[in-house]
Design goal:
Order of helices and strands: EHEHEHEHHEHEEHHEEHEHHEEE
CATH class of the largest domain: Alpha Beta
CATH topology of the largest domain: TIM Barrel
Number of domains: 2
Radius of gyration: 22 Å
Structural class: alpha/beta
Length: about 375
């Protein structure tokens, strides 16, 4: 294995293998996961087109570059298919256009035989679709594996030197806020290199859609999904584990009335999560200053100013509606860390807050 260990944010060249390699149907997945007309898998020419397209859109010096196989259960594919796809990606590594390869797979596809298979290629990052670390929730979601499967898979990958990512979901059947927090702690204990957090939405044609219609599955509201995810993001960032995505990728297919029947979907879900985190900090930090003048001036890292404002300036309006508050202003300060916040009143008195204490100052991203 030749893996690029750079901690810089990579340029991702996505290659989609929609629902390929999935052994059975999870409760939250839609009908296309089990159609008998198999998915169309990319060939070497398709991989090459993706590399050319994404390299042409990026700065020439952008690095590292990774080909990422997304949308299916990569190691659940037949071995000859895994080998063929990796060989197509490896060709671009050998040409110097790409630095490494990443893919997502189910925890129950990790075994020594498959790890031996991929060891000849430049795979660097493996994302495990854990979804939950609660066996009851996993069973209710028809996942077909246990939390111990995820623990074992993560340990095996780390022993082989791979960067390990964990994907988890909030709002699965049988999960409550305490269960989501427990899953978060269990995932953090695996010491992954990064995490993705997805809200559970009800997709048309899924098992959850039927349960929803029958009144047997209450999806999270958007507010509850944001709150649960915000708490998890703070947990992971506080442990020094980057959260590289919160929320589903916005698309025309994933929209209320199209594929989504119900649940906490929003095209800017990640922004809502950050806004929730900073709104709570703003409320906490401003309490001591309201009585002095009612005029508040918040500062954060420049890339966090939109989070201070909230969606449609919602955070500012909510603060200005609080008793004693006359005006609220926000601004950026590049000297602040990504999770820092200051608030001042017109007297010049300043209060400092930090959402998480990063093990390595400045190591958290502003994503």
């Amino acid at each position: 294995m030749s893996a690029d260990r750079s901690r810089a944010k990579p340029l991702i060249v996505p290659v989609f293998i929609p629902h390929a390699g999935c052994p059975h149907r999870c409760a939250f997945c839609d009908q296309t996961a089990i159609t008998h007309a198999g998915p169309v898998l990319p060939d070497a020419a398709a991989v090459a087109r993706q590399v050319r397209t994404f390299r042409s859109l990026a700065r020439p010096d952008r690095h590292p570059v990774q080909i990422a196989f997304y949308g299916g259960n990569f190691l659940g594919l037949p071995e000859e298919t895994v080998r063929s796809l990796l060989a197509a990606a490896q060709d671009h590594v050998q040409r110097g256009a790409v630095h490494s390869i990443r893919f997502s797979t189910r925890p129950d596809t990790i075994d020594e035989r498959r790890l031996d298979l991929i060891s000849a290629f430049s795979a660097a990052d493996v994302e495990l679709g854990a979804q939950s670390m609660d066996d009851r929730v996993l069973a209710l979601s028809n996942r077909g594996h246990t939390a111990e499967t995820t623990r074992r898979a993560a340990a095996m990958l780390k022993a082989r030197g791979y960067n390990v990512g964990i994907q988890m979901m909030v709002g699965l059947p049988g999960e409550d806020p305490e269960g989501a927090a427990a899953t978060g702690r269990a995932v953090a204990d695996l010491r992954p290199d990064f995490v993705r957090i997805y809200p559970t939405v009800v997709l048309r044609g899924s098992v959850l859609a039927r349960r929803f219609r029958e009144g047997r599955y209450p999806p999270l509201s958007l507010a509850d999904g944001v709150e649960r995810t915000a708490a998890l993001r703070l947990l992971f960032e506080g442990r020094g584990i980057p959260v590289i995505r919160t929320g589903l990728q916005a698309s025309a297919d994933l929209a209320p009335g199209a594929a989504i029947v119900a649940g906490p979907y929003h095209p800017a879900f990640g922004h809502l999560v950050l806004s929730k985190i900073f709104f709570d900090m703003m409320v906490d930090a401003s309490g001591e200053l309201i009585a002095a003048s009612g005029e508040l001036f918040f500062k954060a890292h420049p890339r966090r100013v939109n989070a201070l404002r909230g969606m449609g300036n919602g955070n500012l309006r909510a603060l200005e509606s609080r008793p004693g508050v006359r005006s609220v202003r926000v601004g950026g300060d590049p000297a602040l860390e990504p999770w820092d916040l200051t608030v001042s009143d017109r007297t010049g008195r300043t209060i400092f807050r930090r959402a998480v204490e990063s093990p390595e100052p400045g190591s958290s991203t502003c994503g």
